[in-house]
Amino acid sequence: MGNTLLFILVVSQVLLPGPTVAGKTVTQRQIGEDESGENKKSHEHNKDQNQWSMDYEDCGKTAQSPIDIMTGLSLSTALLSIKPEGYDLRDQEKKLTLLNNGHTVQLNLPDSMTIHDSFEQLYRAAQLHFHWGSKGEPGSEHMVDGKRFPAEIHVVHFADKYGSLKEAANKSDGLAVLGVFLEVGSRTNPFYEKLFSYLQAVSEEGDQHEIPPFDIRGLLPDHLERYFRYNGSLTTPPCFQSVTWTVFNNTIQISQDQLSQLENTLKMKHQQILSQNFRVPQSLHGRKVLASFNLSFKTRRMGDPGAEAQDELSSRGNTLAIIFGCLFGITLLAFIIYVMHHRKMNQRSKKETHSNVIYKAATSTEEA
Ligand SMILES: [Zn+2]
Protein backbone atom coordinates (compact mmCIF):
# COMPACT_ATOMS: atom_id res chain seq x y z
CA MET A 1 0.00 0.00 0.00
CA GLY A 2 2.95 2.32 0.76
CA ASN A 3 4.15 2.05 -2.83
CA THR A 4 0.64 2.79 -4.08
CA LEU A 5 0.43 6.05 -2.12
CA LEU A 6 3.87 7.09 -3.33
CA PHE A 7 2.79 6.42 -6.91
CA ILE A 8 -0.38 8.52 -6.46
CA LEU A 9 1.68 11.38 -5.02
CA VAL A 10 4.10 11.27 -7.95
CA VAL A 11 1.21 11.25 -10.44
CA SER A 12 -0.41 14.17 -8.63
CA GLN A 13 2.80 16.21 -8.84
CA VAL A 14 2.98 15.68 -12.59
CA LEU A 15 -0.68 16.48 -13.14
CA LEU A 16 -0.92 19.45 -10.77
CA PRO A 17 1.66 22.13 -11.48
CA GLY A 18 1.42 25.18 -9.13
CA PRO A 19 -1.05 27.72 -10.54
CA THR A 20 1.46 30.59 -10.75
CA VAL A 21 4.80 28.89 -11.28
CA ALA A 22 4.67 28.77 -15.07
CA GLY A 23 3.64 32.42 -15.38
CA LYS A 24 6.37 33.55 -13.02
CA THR A 25 9.03 31.66 -14.92
CA VAL A 26 8.04 33.33 -18.18
CA THR A 27 7.92 36.78 -16.58
CA GLN A 28 11.35 36.39 -15.05
CA ARG A 29 12.83 35.30 -18.35
CA GLN A 30 11.32 38.33 -20.07
CA ILE A 31 12.77 40.64 -17.44
CA GLY A 32 16.21 39.13 -17.90
CA GLU A 33 16.10 39.51 -21.67
CA ASP A 34 14.88 43.08 -21.49
CA GLU A 35 17.46 44.07 -18.96
CA SER A 36 20.35 42.71 -20.94
CA GLY A 37 19.14 44.45 -24.09
CA GLU A 38 18.49 47.59 -22.11
CA ASN A 39 22.01 48.00 -20.80
CA LYS A 40 23.55 48.42 -24.24
CA LYS A 41 20.99 51.03 -25.26
CA SER A 42 21.00 52.82 -21.94
CA HIS A 43 24.70 53.33 -22.31
CA GLU A 44 24.31 55.21 -25.59
CA HIS A 45 21.31 57.20 -24.43
CA ASN A 46 22.82 58.03 -21.09
CA LYS A 47 25.76 59.85 -22.64
CA ASP A 48 23.44 62.62 -23.73
CA GLN A 49 20.79 62.42 -21.02
CA ASN A 50 23.34 62.57 -18.21
CA GLN A 51 24.33 66.01 -19.45
CA TRP A 52 20.81 67.41 -19.16
CA SER A 53 21.24 68.40 -15.50
CA MET A 54 24.23 70.60 -16.42
CA ASP A 55 21.92 72.96 -18.29
CA TYR A 56 18.61 72.16 -16.58
CA GLU A 57 18.82 71.88 -12.82
CA ASP A 58 15.53 70.00 -12.43
CA CYS A 59 16.76 67.10 -14.59
CA GLY A 60 19.07 66.13 -11.71
CA LYS A 61 16.42 66.32 -8.96
CA THR A 62 14.79 63.44 -7.09
CA ALA A 63 11.26 63.23 -8.55
CA GLN A 64 12.09 62.59 -12.18
CA SER A 65 10.32 60.59 -14.87
CA PRO A 66 9.99 58.08 -16.38
CA ILE A 67 10.31 55.24 -13.89
CA ASP A 68 10.31 51.47 -13.91
CA ILE A 69 7.04 50.62 -12.14
CA MET A 70 7.67 47.70 -9.80
CA THR A 71 4.23 46.19 -9.31
CA GLY A 72 5.36 44.34 -6.18
CA LEU A 73 6.24 47.64 -4.50
CA SER A 74 3.17 49.58 -5.68
CA LEU A 75 0.44 50.38 -3.19
CA SER A 76 -3.10 49.43 -4.09
CA THR A 77 -5.44 52.22 -3.12
CA ALA A 78 -8.90 53.52 -3.91
CA LEU A 79 -8.58 55.92 -6.85
CA LEU A 80 -11.45 56.94 -9.07
CA SER A 81 -11.52 56.05 -12.76
CA ILE A 82 -10.19 58.67 -15.19
CA LYS A 83 -13.11 60.53 -16.81
CA PRO A 84 -12.22 62.10 -20.15
CA GLU A 85 -14.73 64.64 -21.44
CA GLY A 86 -14.93 66.37 -24.78
CA TYR A 87 -12.46 63.88 -26.30
CA ASP A 88 -14.73 63.15 -29.25
CA LEU A 89 -13.76 65.86 -31.72
CA ARG A 90 -15.66 64.53 -34.73
CA ASP A 91 -18.09 67.45 -34.67
CA GLN A 92 -15.34 70.01 -34.44
CA GLU A 93 -14.78 72.00 -37.62
CA LYS A 94 -11.30 73.22 -36.84
CA LYS A 95 -8.60 70.82 -37.97
CA LEU A 96 -5.89 69.55 -35.64
CA THR A 97 -2.23 70.42 -36.10
CA LEU A 98 0.19 67.52 -36.36
CA LEU A 99 3.87 68.44 -36.17
CA ASN A 100 7.36 66.96 -36.14
CA ASN A 101 9.39 68.93 -33.59
CA GLY A 102 12.56 66.90 -34.06
CA HIS A 103 12.02 65.01 -30.80
CA THR A 104 8.61 63.46 -31.42
CA VAL A 105 5.43 63.71 -33.45
CA GLN A 106 2.91 65.90 -31.65
CA LEU A 107 -0.80 66.51 -32.12
CA ASN A 108 -2.07 69.77 -30.64
CA LEU A 109 -5.36 69.37 -28.78
CA PRO A 110 -8.14 71.85 -27.91
CA ASP A 111 -8.48 72.79 -24.23
CA SER A 112 -12.17 71.83 -24.41
CA MET A 113 -10.91 68.29 -23.75
CA THR A 114 -10.72 67.67 -20.00
CA ILE A 115 -10.03 64.97 -17.42
CA HIS A 116 -11.27 64.91 -13.85
CA ASP A 117 -12.65 62.73 -11.00
CA SER A 118 -9.32 61.03 -10.36
CA PHE A 119 -7.64 64.39 -9.69
CA GLU A 120 -8.07 67.12 -7.14
CA GLN A 121 -8.72 69.64 -9.88
CA LEU A 122 -9.75 69.97 -13.50
CA TYR A 123 -7.10 69.44 -16.15
CA ARG A 124 -7.35 70.57 -19.79
CA ALA A 125 -5.67 68.91 -22.74
CA ALA A 126 -2.81 70.60 -24.60
CA GLN A 127 -1.16 68.01 -26.84
CA LEU A 128 -0.32 64.37 -27.27
CA HIS A 129 2.90 62.83 -28.52
CA PHE A 130 4.74 59.51 -28.75
CA HIS A 131 7.91 57.77 -27.64
CA TRP A 132 9.19 54.77 -29.57
CA GLY A 133 12.24 52.61 -30.24
CA SER A 134 13.51 51.22 -33.50
CA LYS A 135 13.04 47.96 -35.38
CA GLY A 136 13.00 45.15 -32.83
CA GLU A 137 13.93 47.54 -30.01
CA PRO A 138 11.07 48.67 -27.76
CA GLY A 139 10.90 52.35 -26.90
CA SER A 140 8.32 53.14 -24.21
CA GLU A 141 9.51 55.53 -21.49
CA HIS A 142 7.87 53.86 -18.52
CA MET A 143 8.64 50.25 -17.82
CA VAL A 144 6.80 47.69 -15.73
CA ASP A 145 8.76 45.16 -13.72
CA GLY A 146 11.74 45.67 -16.00
CA LYS A 147 9.76 45.31 -19.22
CA ARG A 148 9.87 48.02 -21.86
CA PHE A 149 6.99 48.22 -24.34
CA PRO A 150 7.24 48.92 -28.11
CA ALA A 151 5.92 52.50 -27.77
CA GLU A 152 4.06 54.88 -25.45
CA ILE A 153 1.59 57.69 -26.04
CA HIS A 154 1.44 60.69 -23.69
CA VAL A 155 -1.63 62.91 -23.51
CA VAL A 156 -0.55 66.11 -21.79
CA HIS A 157 -2.99 68.22 -19.73
CA PHE A 158 -2.53 71.39 -17.67
CA ALA A 159 -4.37 72.47 -14.51
CA ASP A 160 -7.30 74.71 -15.43
CA LYS A 161 -6.43 77.19 -12.68
CA TYR A 162 -3.14 78.11 -14.40
CA GLY A 163 -4.86 78.92 -17.68
CA SER A 164 -2.21 77.55 -20.05
CA LEU A 165 0.38 74.82 -20.48
CA LYS A 166 3.17 77.38 -20.33
CA GLU A 167 1.99 78.81 -17.00
CA ALA A 168 1.32 75.37 -15.48
CA ALA A 169 4.48 73.63 -16.70
CA ASN A 170 6.66 74.47 -13.69
CA LYS A 171 4.01 74.32 -10.92
CA SER A 172 4.08 71.27 -8.66
CA ASP A 173 0.44 70.43 -9.48
CA GLY A 174 0.55 71.99 -12.93
CA LEU A 175 0.36 69.02 -15.28
CA ALA A 176 -1.41 65.68 -15.61
CA VAL A 177 -0.14 63.27 -18.26
CA LEU A 178 -1.90 60.08 -19.30
CA GLY A 179 0.47 57.37 -20.51
CA VAL A 180 -0.56 54.30 -22.49
CA PHE A 181 1.68 51.50 -23.69
CA LEU A 182 1.38 50.47 -27.35
CA GLU A 183 1.90 46.88 -28.34
CA VAL A 184 1.73 44.94 -31.59
CA GLY A 185 -1.50 43.10 -32.31
CA SER A 186 -2.89 41.40 -35.37
CA ARG A 187 -5.10 44.25 -36.59
CA THR A 188 -4.70 47.80 -37.81
CA ASN A 189 -5.92 50.13 -35.08
CA PRO A 190 -8.44 52.44 -36.81
CA PHE A 191 -8.05 55.28 -34.26
CA TYR A 192 -4.26 55.33 -34.49
CA GLU A 193 -4.57 55.12 -38.27
CA LYS A 194 -6.33 58.52 -38.23
CA LEU A 195 -3.04 59.96 -37.01
CA PHE A 196 -0.38 57.61 -38.38
CA SER A 197 -1.71 57.92 -41.94
CA TYR A 198 -0.41 61.51 -41.88
CA LEU A 199 3.08 60.75 -40.53
CA GLN A 200 4.54 60.98 -44.02
CA ALA A 201 3.19 64.54 -44.27
CA VAL A 202 5.36 65.59 -41.30
CA SER A 203 8.41 63.48 -42.04
CA GLU A 204 10.88 66.37 -41.91
CA GLU A 205 11.76 68.21 -38.71
CA GLY A 206 9.63 71.33 -38.44
CA ASP A 207 6.88 69.99 -40.73
CA GLN A 208 3.26 70.70 -39.78
CA HIS A 209 0.08 69.31 -41.24
CA GLU A 210 -3.61 69.91 -40.51
CA ILE A 211 -5.54 66.68 -40.00
CA PRO A 212 -9.28 66.05 -39.64
CA PRO A 213 -10.49 65.91 -36.01
CA PHE A 214 -11.41 62.46 -34.71
CA ASP A 215 -12.44 60.75 -31.47
CA ILE A 216 -9.30 61.03 -29.32
CA ARG A 217 -10.92 58.77 -26.71
CA GLY A 218 -10.23 55.88 -29.12
CA LEU A 219 -6.49 56.32 -28.53
CA LEU A 220 -6.96 55.36 -24.87
CA PRO A 221 -7.76 51.87 -23.50
CA ASP A 222 -11.43 50.92 -23.11
CA HIS A 223 -11.04 50.63 -19.35
CA LEU A 224 -9.64 53.67 -17.60
CA GLU A 225 -10.09 52.52 -14.00
CA ARG A 226 -6.92 50.46 -13.77
CA TYR A 227 -3.78 52.58 -13.65
CA PHE A 228 -0.58 53.46 -11.79
CA ARG A 229 -0.18 56.92 -10.29
CA TYR A 230 2.90 58.77 -9.11
CA ASN A 231 4.38 62.26 -8.98
CA GLY A 232 7.11 62.92 -11.50
CA SER A 233 8.39 65.21 -14.18
CA LEU A 234 8.58 66.10 -17.84
CA THR A 235 10.78 63.47 -19.49
CA THR A 236 12.65 66.03 -21.59
CA PRO A 237 14.43 69.22 -20.50
CA PRO A 238 13.61 71.35 -18.61
CA CYS A 239 12.40 68.25 -16.64
CA PHE A 240 10.05 70.30 -14.41
CA GLN A 241 8.75 68.18 -11.53
CA SER A 242 5.17 69.18 -12.20
CA VAL A 243 3.51 66.03 -13.53
CA THR A 244 0.87 63.86 -11.90
CA TRP A 245 1.44 60.71 -13.91
CA THR A 246 -1.26 58.20 -14.80
CA VAL A 247 0.06 55.09 -16.56
CA PHE A 248 -2.72 52.75 -17.61
CA ASN A 249 -2.53 49.06 -16.83
CA ASN A 250 -4.35 48.17 -20.06
CA THR A 251 -2.35 48.52 -23.24
CA ILE A 252 -3.38 49.46 -26.78
CA GLN A 253 -2.67 47.27 -29.76
CA ILE A 254 -1.55 48.57 -33.12
CA SER A 255 -0.42 46.52 -36.12
CA GLN A 256 3.22 45.77 -36.91
CA ASP A 257 2.88 48.01 -39.98
CA GLN A 258 1.66 50.90 -37.83
CA LEU A 259 4.54 50.46 -35.37
CA SER A 260 7.00 50.33 -38.28
CA GLN A 261 5.51 53.56 -39.69
CA LEU A 262 6.09 55.26 -36.34
CA GLU A 263 9.63 53.91 -36.12
CA ASN A 264 10.74 54.66 -39.68
CA THR A 265 8.88 57.66 -41.12
CA LEU A 266 10.01 60.67 -39.13
CA LYS A 267 13.35 62.36 -39.51
CA MET A 268 15.30 64.83 -37.43
CA LYS A 269 18.30 66.96 -38.38
CA HIS A 270 20.66 65.76 -41.11
CA GLN A 271 17.99 63.37 -42.43
CA GLN A 272 18.60 61.01 -39.54
CA ILE A 273 15.64 58.78 -38.66
CA LEU A 274 13.95 59.97 -35.46
CA SER A 275 13.90 56.89 -33.23
CA GLN A 276 14.57 55.75 -29.66
CA ASN A 277 13.27 59.05 -28.31
CA PHE A 278 12.79 57.85 -24.76
CA ARG A 279 14.47 58.82 -21.52
CA VAL A 280 15.95 56.03 -19.37
CA PRO A 281 14.15 55.21 -16.10
CA GLN A 282 14.89 57.48 -13.16
CA SER A 283 15.34 56.53 -9.50
CA LEU A 284 12.27 56.67 -7.31
CA HIS A 285 14.14 58.26 -4.37
CA GLY A 286 11.48 56.96 -1.97
CA ARG A 287 8.48 58.05 -4.01
CA LYS A 288 5.41 55.87 -3.71
CA VAL A 289 3.72 54.43 -6.78
CA LEU A 290 0.00 53.88 -6.30
CA ALA A 291 -2.17 51.37 -8.14
CA SER A 292 -5.88 52.07 -8.56
CA PHE A 293 -6.60 48.34 -8.54
CA ASN A 294 -5.92 45.38 -6.31
CA LEU A 295 -2.43 44.06 -6.91
CA SER A 296 -2.32 41.79 -3.88
CA PHE A 297 -4.31 38.82 -5.17
CA LYS A 298 -2.52 38.60 -8.47
CA THR A 299 -0.06 40.81 -10.26
CA ARG A 300 -1.13 41.23 -13.84
CA ARG A 301 1.51 40.80 -16.44
CA MET A 302 1.38 44.14 -18.24
CA GLY A 303 1.31 44.11 -21.94
CA ASP A 304 -0.60 40.92 -22.05
CA PRO A 305 -4.17 41.86 -22.91
CA GLY A 306 -5.13 38.19 -22.79
CA ALA A 307 -3.64 37.75 -19.31
CA GLU A 308 -6.99 37.73 -17.58
CA ALA A 309 -8.41 35.20 -20.01
CA GLN A 310 -5.25 33.14 -19.74
CA ASP A 311 -5.39 33.23 -15.95
CA GLU A 312 -8.96 32.06 -16.08
CA LEU A 313 -8.06 29.29 -18.52
CA SER A 314 -5.07 28.33 -16.42
CA SER A 315 -7.25 28.25 -13.30
CA ARG A 316 -9.80 26.07 -15.13
CA GLY A 317 -6.97 23.86 -16.36
CA ASN A 318 -5.70 23.45 -12.82
CA THR A 319 -9.17 22.57 -11.53
CA LEU A 320 -9.50 19.97 -14.29
CA ALA A 321 -6.06 18.61 -13.46
CA ILE A 322 -7.07 18.27 -9.79
CA ILE A 323 -10.30 16.46 -10.71
CA PHE A 324 -8.55 14.12 -13.14
CA GLY A 325 -5.73 13.57 -10.66
CA CYS A 326 -8.22 12.61 -7.94
CA LEU A 327 -10.22 10.39 -10.30
CA PHE A 328 -7.04 8.72 -11.47
CA GLY A 329 -5.91 8.18 -7.87
CA ILE A 330 -9.28 6.74 -6.83
CA THR A 331 -9.40 4.44 -9.89
CA LEU A 332 -5.85 3.27 -9.22
CA LEU A 333 -6.64 2.66 -5.56
CA ALA A 334 -9.83 0.76 -6.46
CA PHE A 335 -7.89 -1.29 -9.01
CA ILE A 336 -5.17 -2.15 -6.48
CA ILE A 337 -7.77 -3.08 -3.85
CA TYR A 338 -9.54 -5.20 -6.47
CA VAL A 339 -6.29 -6.91 -7.48
CA MET A 340 -5.34 -7.59 -3.85
CA HIS A 341 -8.82 -8.84 -3.05
CA HIS A 342 -8.76 -11.03 -6.14
CA ARG A 343 -5.36 -12.41 -5.13
CA LYS A 344 -6.66 -13.28 -1.61
CA MET A 345 -9.70 -14.97 -3.12
CA ASN A 346 -7.40 -16.97 -5.39
CA GLN A 347 -5.23 -18.00 -2.48
CA ARG A 348 -8.31 -19.06 -0.44
CA SER A 349 -9.69 -20.82 -3.47
CA LYS A 350 -6.33 -22.62 -3.93
CA LYS A 351 -6.37 -23.65 -0.24
CA GLU A 352 -9.91 -24.92 -0.63
CA THR A 353 -8.96 -26.75 -3.83
CA HIS A 354 -5.98 -28.24 -2.03
CA SER A 355 -8.09 -29.43 0.93
CA ASN A 356 -10.58 -30.83 -1.54
CA VAL A 357 -7.81 -32.84 -3.04
CA ILE A 358 -6.82 -34.14 0.37
CA TYR A 359 -10.42 -34.85 1.15
CA LYS A 360 -10.93 -36.55 -2.17
CA ALA A 361 -7.71 -38.44 -1.74
CA ALA A 362 -8.89 -39.57 1.67
CA THR A 363 -12.15 -40.58 0.13
CA SER A 364 -10.39 -42.35 -2.63
CA THR A 365 -8.21 -44.07 -0.04
CA GLU A 366 -11.33 -45.11 1.77
CA GLU A 367 -12.76 -46.29 -1.49
CA ALA A 368 -9.60 -48.08 -2.23
ZN1 LIG B 1 6.30 62.22 -23.43
From TrEMBL:
The chain crosses the membrane at residues 320-340. InterPro entries: CA_dom, CA_dom_sf, Carbonic_anhydrase_a-class, Carbonic_anhydrase_a-class_CS. Residues 37-48 have a biased composition (Basic and acidic residues). Pfam families: Carb_anhydrase. SUPFAM superfamilies: Carbonic anhydrase. Its cofactor is Zn(2+). PROSITE patterns: ALPHA_CA_1, ALPHA_CA_2. GO terms for molecular function: carbonate dehydratase activity; zinc ion binding. Residues 24-53 are annotated as: Disordered. It comes from the Eukaryota. Residues 1-22 form the signal peptide. PANTHER family: CARBONIC ANHYDRASE, CARBONIC ANHYDRASE 9. Belongs to the alpha-carbonic anhydrase family. This is Carbonic anhydrase.
